[in-house]
Design goal:
single chain, Cytochrome p450, five-stranded mixed beta sheet, three-stranded antiparallel beta sheet, 10 strands, globular
Length: about 400
């Protein structure tokens, strides 16, 4: 059964998803007050449906929408989160995405390839030289932090601050976060925002070739990003990109270890199979299991009426295992070509950082697969307690 606080469910939610898709593809879940949507067709359609939104405050007040206003003590988190692309709707989302896209361009991402390749090679080299270790701590965690730090122009001495801030802030995206989790998120929001404001002031005085400088310079018909919008954009790029990359690395390698014939096939021709393998690993064990949206107008999904003011929980992990859309969905297939997974979302909120995430994954997987050493799983890993952002605590490997 669906139980997002159960360690057993978190370790393997896919049987419960199959039951939901078969019996109740749209099910009301009382503990969180959400409508669970589990089929690929419905999830994909609702991601694009403008009758839903990541927020409702662009159209309704809290009381008017039947919701309790957020705790004033959490204001720093909500200000930070509410000014980022993930939780905005048109016209604000349209405007900010247009401006951010002028700075965070495909050319900028591609220009990072040599840096990402170097960083991945150094991290993988260190792991192999030690004869193995924790793949997550040694490679998966530090790589995206180092890359975003390079992008933002964060000095080397300050880079250790970024990951703890990110972990604390993303704790608020879990279901029914505790008061302690909320306070850590608030504290991290204040500290990270203050740090970035200082970085922005420095770049205004001395512009560079980094993303912060590019965000400052981004203009569109006289419009520009506010300081808060720049801060929120930088935090979102770290949080969203980091969690997706880390957990696709950990979850994906675990899937390969459990499917040795697929790992062998991937190793047999890395250049040929790696692009489809990365998409398949994101589908097979999705790093973001749930994406929530508010219902702004009455809708009907799979014959079930959902009223305005409700919240839907789009189950990405379930949609990505739907047999109606994916042939033999519970089988890992690193050569799968027809793979319309929803891991990066869809519609106006399709992940802006998807090209960067794919680049990081290609370089880290490539460095590990092309190395002369072969990785072997040392112990059965333990899953982190979070369900929405789902990943491993560690992944101990031996390099032989």
């Amino acid at each position: 059964m669906f139980d997002p606080w159960s360690p057993e469910f978190i370790a393997h939610p896919y049987d419960a998803y199959a039951e939901l898709r078969e019996r109740t593809p749209v099910a009301y879940y009382e503990p969180t007050g959400q409508w669970l949507v589990s089929r690929h067709e419905d999830v994909s359609a609702l991601l694009r449906d403008r009758r839903l939104g990541r927020t409702y405050t662009h159209r309704f007040g809290h009381e008017e929408f039947g919701q309790t206003p957020p705790d004033p003590a959490h204001e720093p988190f909500h200000t930070l989160n509410g000014n980022g692309l993930l939780d905005l709707e048109a016209p604000d989302h349209t405007r900010i995405r247009r401006l951010v896209s002028k700075a965070f361009t495909p050319r900028m991402v591609e220009s990072l390839r040599p840096t990402v390749a170097r960083l991945a090679g150094e991290l993988v080299g260190g792991l192999l030289a030690e004869g193995g270790g924790d793949l997550i701590a040694a490679v998966a965690e530090p790589l995206p932090v180092a890359v975003i730090a390079e992008m933002l122009g964060v000095p080397e001495a300050d880079r250790g601050l970024l990951r703890p801030w990110s972990a604390a802030i993303t704790g608020m995206f879990e279901l029914n976060p505790t008061a302690e989790v909320a306070q850590r998120a608030v504290d991290a929001s204040v500290e990270f925002s203050d740090y970035l404001r200082g970085l922005i002031r420095e770049r205004r005085r001395r512009p560079g070739s980094d993303l912060v400088s590019a965000l400052i310079q981004a203009q569109d018909e006289g419009d520009a990003l506010s300081e808060q919008e720049m801060v929120s954009t930088c935090v979102l790029l770290l949080n969203a990109g980091h969690e997706a990359t880390v957990n696709t690395t950990g979850n994906g390698w675990l899937a390969l270890f459990r499917n040795p014939e697929q790992l062998a096939l991937l190793r047999s021709d890395v250049d040929r199979h790696l692009p489809t393998a990365i998409e398949e690993l994101m589908r097979y064990d999705t790093p973001l299991q749930m994406f929530e949206r508010w219902v702004l107008e009455d809708i009907e999904v799979a014959g079930t009426a959902i009223p305005r003011g409700a919240e839907v929980a789009l189950l990405f992990g379930s949609a990505n295992r739907d047999p109606v859309r994916f042939a033999d969905p519970d089988r890992l297939d690193v050569t799968r070509a027809d793979n319309p997974h929803v891991t990066f979302g869809a519609g106006i909120h399709f992940c802006l950082g998807a090209p960067l995430a794919r680049l990081e994954l290609a370089e880290s997987y490539g460095a590990l697969l092309r190395g002369t050493a072969r990785l072997e799983l040392v112990e059965e890993p333990v899953w982190q307690p979070g369900y929405v952002i789902r990943g491993l605590t560690r992944l101990l490997v031996a390099a032989r």
